[in-house]
Amino acid sequence: MKFGVIVFPGSNCDDDTVGVIQSLGHEAVKLWHKDTDLQGCDFIIVPGGFSYGDYLRSGAIARFSPIMEHVIEFAKNGGYLMGICNGFQVLVEAHLLPGVLLRNNSQKFISKNIYLKAATNNALLTQELDRNKAYKIPIAHAEGRYFADQATLASLQANDQILFYYCDANGQVTEEANPNGSLLNIAGICNEGRNVFGLMPHPERAADPDLNNTDGLEIMKQLILQMA
Fold first, then answer.
1. Is the pLDDT of residue 155 over 90?
2. What positions constitute the catalytic site (predicted)?
3. What is the chain's mean pLDDT, rounded?
4. In terms of Cα–Cα distance, which of 4, 182, 13, 197 is closest to 96?
């Protein structure tokens, strides 16, 4: 598989993401935000960071970068696309995923390890994850509070589009385990076509034994299982 990792001015997780993909034995190339060629990639990742300095709203300016026209077309034609943290914000701004990401209810930037659990196995990103396991993954965001109207939330639940919930170390989905006030403790979702994924936590930052945490590697591995 060939993965493309988009780089905007202010992206800071592109190298981490490329490194994890390469460690899994697959090709990964960087795609500059002004490019108009996706270089034949099978899977596109919009990484974390602070695209355009997070001016206006996080992801709102990046959504209009030249490459995004081609990314949107790629996704609408069934191509696999994932946004992590700022990438998730870009994808909701591009209306490729429903809902919005608002400022954390603490009104502060949060950078720490949290726990999340898979809500379903009915998606590429969660297909073989243990739904009883609490995965320790770092977060680093100021606008990560997932919000949608009641009709959208009901649709996400009915269509099994919720991918991850924030939980405690024992896998319990509680208000206390919710780091940012996201509705229903939502940490990640997919689109109705199940080819576009977004999550706020950073699995690519928990994918190296030198960091004493490889829980994120288990999530990233899901992206290549379709090749098995």
1. yes
2. 85 (nucleophile), 202, 204
3. 95
4. 197
Element (H, E) at 30: strand 27-32
Q: Is 221 exposed, middle or buried (0-12, 13-18, 19+ CB in 10 A)?
A: middle
Catalytic pick among 93, 143, 204, 218 = 204
Catalytic residue among 13, 33, 41, 85: 85
CB-side neighbour CA atoms (13 Å) of 100: 9
pTM for the full model? Answer: 0.95
Query: Is 167 one of the annotated active-site residues of the chain?
Result: no
Can 204 be counted among the known catalytic residues?
Answer: yes
- The answer to whether 197 and 83 have CB atoms below 8 angstroms apart is yes
> Per the residue annotation, which of 41, 93, 143, 202 is the catalytic one?
202
Mean pLDDT of 18-22: 97
| Closest C-alpha to 75, from 58, 59, 63 | 63
For range 187-197, the mean pLDDT: 98
- Residues 6 or more apart whose CB falls under 8 angstroms from that of 173 comprise 117, 165, 166, 167, 185
Is 157 strand, coil or helix? helix
Alpha helices by DSSP H, the chain: 14-23, 66-76, 86-93, 150-158, 215-221
Tell me whether residue 176 is one of the annotated catalytic residues: no
